[in-house]
Write a structure and sequence with these properties.
The structure holds two protein chains of two kinds. Chain A is globular and about 60 Å long. Chain A is mainly alpha-helical. Chain A is built from 18 helices and no strands. In chain A, helix 3 runs parallel beside helix 6 and helix 11 (about 215-230) packs parallel to helix 16 (about 340-365). Chain A has two domains: about 10-195, MFS general substrate transporter like domains (Growth Hormone, Chain: A), CATH 1.20.1250.20; about 200-395, Up-down Bundle (Growth Hormone, Chain: A). Among the domains of chain B are: about 55-155, Sandwich (Immunoglobulin-like); about 160-255, Immunoglobulin-like. By secondary structure, chain B is α+β, with helices and mostly antiparallel strands. In chain B, a hairpin with a 5-residue loop joins strand 15 and strand 16. In chain B, the strands form four sheets. In chain B, strands 1, 2, 4, 7 and 8 form a five-stranded mixed β-sheet that branches. The chains are: A mainly alpha, B alpha+beta. The interface of A and B includes residues 171 and 183 of A. Chain B: Pfam families: I-set. Chain B: Keywords: Cell membrane, Disulfide bond, Glycoprotein, Immunoglobulin domain, Membrane, Phosphoprotein, Repeat, Signal, Synapse, Transmembrane, Transmembrane helix. Chain B: It is a single-pass type I membrane protein. Chain B: Interacts with SLC16A1, SLC16A6 and SLC16A7.
């Protein structure tokens, strides 16, 4: 297959966006709407809520920690076979879960099996997307990630209907069939060969080169800190509102408002990320700072209007930072190393995600309300955005009027010319 | 409303003292105790109150006017025996002393009630004790004769709750049917399954299939193992409370695995077709591209060939031309 010098920025790339859209829906939408099954499983197995919620936690943990595996395999074999295999795994996990007779059975089938299936799908797809786009990368990523928000809206009532009609066993069986569409999404990921691919070498070589890459390490650290604060409102906003004596219905309405502004934020930020000149890291800094500020202001707001405004602000800014966060990576490490890079970032930042919610809960137990939790969450985001300042090109306002070329390509060009020289000498 | 002394009786043809005597006699007859003196209406009731002084006191009240269109009703949920003090207040422009007041339980006339008048408002009070289900029911206060105004107190036992939606389960599965009462602790719970329209009590001793869990007083759980399609239908849980009985229905649906399997296989087939379409489309476009590329190559080869031949042809005439020119 002919090697391309530049990502196509369109054409088949839009089919990859479609595929990524459905994949984020089928992976994260299912995870987010799992609450419907959670209620049924608590009743069916007569277990405590904490033990049943481990199912989803194991699934998320396996998905995030398994990301490097997905990326390594994609580097070697291309994203298509990996994602299709992941789809089969995820669907089989759900299928086996529908026959579960105990909670352990569910931990293994949904948590482990489906989780590893999800690990093999999401990261390779996003990385593949980054390879297909250069100028419109942020917009493509933003559009693809709207799948998460939209699917949460659609899947929650759908799962509720499935459970009322077929009970949780039948419901899981049909969710398994739904997850099988990941295989179809994987089929859409046509392999793309870029010029820098042979130069960056195999997965092992890529990993070692990444671990020595200063900006990459700083970026990973920043994202980990951001992740720690990012998920806290998702987990604790409802409880915080109940502490303020909000009605459950109005609280749920507020959460829907957050979800909608999150969606709008993703697309808007994606578009903005491509049109605004200069490195995308600056936009990431902007959005993370604003998210941190809005989070820290949450405890101060007491009136419904103030909380509503903050909710919209938080939703918009937190949604806005997601596509940009993914777009920064190719600019840092190059599209050749994107699979490995993304996998590593996902794995490390998941530590932040796992620690964030329990930390917030612990602070709440110690101080009595969520003030400390939100302020600390905001602080994490602000520190993270501060670390982003140390990334290259963030402060160069004079030089680049256009986007900096993927820095990987510079390194690659020198390598390629060297190898050519070497061949000539031979 | 605080307790009012019995000073006024219903004005009628009978003199006041005789009426009080009648009331007292009636009251003591109901108690089954010999009456100590003619005017013992209050003390008799007072004795009742001391006997049941450890019970709680409920004091519901209703307000009526002579212009009320519809009868006023009030529901009172009662779980344990209590002392009751019912109060009806009636506002009228007419002379309060001329209003005819009656208390009824269902259709039965009650005695032993108290009256007081303040300005335009007439207060009627009836005190009694609810000990068992016999005293439960509807108590009404009625004012006036031609245009009768009625206020009714309905005494009910607390409700029990099952599940509103049918419970969906599968064959060979295990399920638990739950009935619970939020604000009461029934003395006894029993379960019934329905055979057609008859309620059949569930025998727990017969087999392992049915297990009733009675650890919690406020709820009951019926566990059914090894479900089969014959177990489908309505189940009833009955709570025996101190002041009555309550019944609730739970619907059980048992499905076989084939029910969700059909849509599952349908969706799997759809995914396989999708994947096939995508891959075939890709190989098709690749073949086409290769065809075009081959075509381009072919054209390029043709181009080169024609260039060569053109060069040869051109050389010859030029050569000849030169020769002709030079000569």
């Amino acid at each position: 297959m002919a090697r391309r010098a530049e990502p196509p920025d369109g054409g088949w790339g839009w089919m990859v966006v479609l595929s990524a859209f459905f994949q984020s829906a089928l992976v994260f939408g299912v995870l987010r709407s799992f609450g419907v099954f959670f209620v049924e499983l608590v009743a069916a197995f007569q277990e405590q809520a904490a033990r049943v919620s481990w199912i989803a936690s194991i699934g998320i943990a396996v998905q995030q920690f398994g990301s490097p595996v997905g990326s390594t395999l994609s580097t070697k074999y291309g994203p298509r076979p990996v994602v299709m295999a992941g789809g089969v795994l995820a669907a089989s996990g759900m299928l086996l879960a529908s026959f579960a007779t105990s909670l352990t059975h569910l931990y293994l089938s949904i948590g482990l099996l489906s989780g590893s299936g999800w690990a093999l799908t999401f990261t390779p797809t996003l990385a593949c997307l980054s390879r297909y786009f250069s100028r419109r990368r942020s917009l493509a990523t933003g559009l693809a990630l709207t799948g998460v928000g939209l699917s949460s809206f659609a899947f929650a009532p759908l799962f509720q209907w499935l459970v009322s009609r077929y009970a949780w066993r039948g419901g899981l069986l049909l969710v398994s069939a739904l997850s099988l569409h990941l295989v179809a999404c994987g089929a859409l990921l046509r392999p793309l060969s870029l010029t820098e691919d042979p130069a960056v070498g195999g997965p092992g070589a890529q990993l070692t080169s990444l671990l020595r890459h200063g900006p990459f390490l700083r970026y990973t650290l920043a994202l980990t800190l951001i992740n720690t604060g990012y998920f806290i409102p998702y987990v604790h906003l409802m409880a915080h509102l109940q502490d303020l004596d909000w009605e459950p219905l109005s609280a749920a309405f507020l959460l829907s408002v957050v979800a909608i502004s999150d969606l709008v934020g993703r697309v808007a930020s994606g578009w903005l990320g491509d049109t605004v000149p200069g490195p995308v890291a600056r936009l990431l800094m902007l959005w993370t700072t604003l998210t941190g500020v809005s989070l820290a202001l949450f405890p101060v707001a007491r009136t419904p209007t103030a909380l509503m405004v903050l909710a919209v602000a938080y939703g918009f800014t937190s949604g806005a930072l997601t596509p940009v966060a993914f777009s920064v990576l190719p600019e840092l490490v190059g599209t050749g190393r994107i699979y490995c890079g993304l996998g590593m970032v996902q794995m490390v930042e998941s530590i932040g995600g796992l620690l964030g919610a329990p930390l917030s809960g612990y602070l709440r137990d110690r101080t009595g309300d969520y003030t400390a939790s939100f302020v600390v969450a905001g602080a994490f985001l602000l520190v993270g955005s501060g670390i982003l300042l140390t990334l290259p090109h963030v402060f160069c306002f004079s030089a680049s009027a256009s986007k900096p070329q993927d820095s990987g390509t510079e390194a690659v060009h020198t390598k390629v010319s060297l190898t050519r020289k070497g061949l000539q000498e031979d | 409303m605080r307790a009012l002394p019995c000073l006024l009786g219903p004005r009628g043809p009978l003199p006041l003292a005789l009426l009080c005597l009648l009331v007292a006699a009636r009251g003591s007859l109901a108690d089954g105790q010999p009456s100590a003196s003619p005017f013992t209406s209050l003390p008799t009731h007072g004795e009742m109150m001391t006997k049941y002084s450890n019970l709680s006191l409920e004091t519901p009240d209703i307000s009526l006017t002579e212009h009320s269109r519809v009868p006023v009703e009030k529901n009172i949920t009662l779980e344990r025996p209590s002392n009751i003090q019912l109060t009806c207040q009636f506002t009228t422009h007419k002379d309060v002393n001329s209003v005819n007041v009656t208390w009824k339980k269902g259709d039965e006339l009650l005695q032993n009630y108290l009256l007081n008048a303040t300005g335009n408002i007439l207060y009627a009070q009836y005190m009694f004790t609810i000990i068992n289900s016999e005293q439960m029911g509807s108590y009404s206060c009625l004012f006036g004769e031609e245009k009768e105004q009625r206020g009714t107190f309905h005494f009910k036992v607390p409700e029990i709750h099952g599940k509103n939606k049918p419970l969906v389960t599968y064959v060979r599965d295990t399920t638990v049917l739950i009935c619970k009462c939020q604000h009461c602790s029934p003395l006894n719970w029993t379960w019934y399954s329905s055979n057609g329209s008859i309620q059949v009590p569930i025998d727990v001793q017969m087999s392992d299939k049915y297990v009733i869990d009675g650890t919690s007083a406020t709820e009951t759980r019926l566990k059914i193992t090894q479900l089969s399609e014959g177990d489908q239908g309505s189940y009833w849980c009955r709570a025996a409370l101190r002041l009555g009985e309550r019944e609730e229905r739970v619907e059980l649906v048992v499905l076989s695995y084939l029910v969700p399997l059909k849509p599952f296989l349908g969706i799997v087939a759809e995914v396989v077709i999708l994947v096939a379409i995508i891959l075939f489309y890709e190989t098709y476009t690749q073949k086409k591209k290769k065809h075009i590329d081959d075509g381009k190559e072919f054209e390029q080869v043709e181009q080169l060939k024609s260039d060569d031949s053109n060069g040869v042809e051109n050389n010859a005439p030029r050569h000849r031309k030169n020769e002709s020119v030079s000569q």
